[in-house]
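PROTEIN DESIGN WORKSHEET
SECTION A - STRUCTURE
LENGTH: 288
TOKENS:
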């Protein structure tokens, strides 16, 4: 009948549209990347390298302003004021992008008693807010991003798109439970603030691992991150590097911020890459 023919034609059109979208999804690469913590020390370096590689970059932070207004690459970044502790902000940013980098850094939280030292040790010189705990800034923000990514991945799966890529900057010491003498060092020598810092990092890593069916997570575990402008850590660089070279199992070689940033970009580009990346993997990725 005429009605059945019309129904079949409509069905055929829908199938063709779906097939076209499916093919496009399979062939497309990540093009739009959101960098949470984009005004920070690591985030700024990541944004710069993403722009050089041709990505459309959105940087999300509390300040939302370009830290280097005269930088040609950074001037091409979309700078957005946003609080990643707000799930609705994370949902909007994730939905508008193809991948996420989490580079929100906080070494000393408000409960550490050392929060003012962030002005010195933070590469961007930022100070934590009154509610800036490890639980809120590390775990809370990443959980919001992960939840938003899971929701987006479920929708993407209908069109054949691959897992949603997330790069997370963790810490070398998060791997202490897996190396010789690491657990003893943490239990006997680590201050309480460091234990809470690592607990938050490990919690995020675990949640990413639990959702590996929908998220392609790449976890970067650098020890000290530096360049020659980081006078606060420069004296410790040779100590860490020598200990690592001598085979001290709980000390990793330091990582230059440029190496970490290049490795993160490579992690976004390589659709087969996932899991934990230590300094040796980061150095290899940065060469690509």
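SECTION B - SEQUENCE
RESIDUE ASSIGNMENT:
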């Amino acid at each position: 009948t005429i009605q059945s023919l019309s129904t079949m034609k409509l069905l055929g059109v829908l199938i063709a549209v779906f097939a076209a979208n499916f093919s496009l999804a399979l062939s497309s690469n990540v093009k739009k990347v959101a960098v949470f913590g984009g005004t920070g020390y690591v985030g700024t370096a990541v944004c710069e390298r993403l722009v050089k590689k041709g990505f459309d970059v959105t940087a999300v932070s509390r300040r939302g302003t370009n830290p280097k207004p005269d930088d040609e690459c950074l001037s091409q970044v979309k700078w957005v004021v946003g609080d990643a502790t707000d799930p609705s902000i994370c949902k909007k940013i994730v939905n508008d992008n193809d991948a996420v980098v989490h580079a929100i850094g906080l070494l000393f939280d408000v409960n550490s008693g050392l929060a003012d030292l962030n002005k010195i040790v933070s590469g961007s010189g930022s100070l934590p807010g009154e509610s800036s705990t490890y639980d809120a800034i590390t775990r809370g923000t990443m959980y919001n991003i992960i939840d938003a990514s899971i929701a987006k991945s479920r929708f993407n799966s209908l069109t054949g798109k691959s897992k949603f890529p997330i790069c997370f900057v963790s810490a070398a010491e998060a791997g202490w439970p897996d190396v010789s003498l690491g657990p003893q060092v943490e239990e006997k020598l680590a201050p309480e603030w460091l234990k809470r810092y690592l607990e938050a990092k490990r919690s995020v890593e675990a949640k990413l691992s639990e959702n590996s069916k929908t998220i392609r997570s790449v976890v970067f575990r650098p020890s000290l991150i530096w360049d020659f402008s980081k006078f606060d850590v420069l004296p410790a660089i040779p100590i860490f590097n020598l200990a690592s070279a001598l085979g001290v199992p709980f000390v990793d070689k330091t990582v230059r911020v440029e190496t970490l940033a290049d490795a993160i970009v490579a992690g976004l580009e390589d659709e087969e890459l996932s899991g934990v990346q230590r300094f040796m993997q980061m150095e290899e990725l940065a060469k690509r």
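SECTION C - NOTES
Residues 17-28 have pLDDT under 50 and may be disordered.
The CA atoms of residues 89 and 266 lie 26 Å apart.
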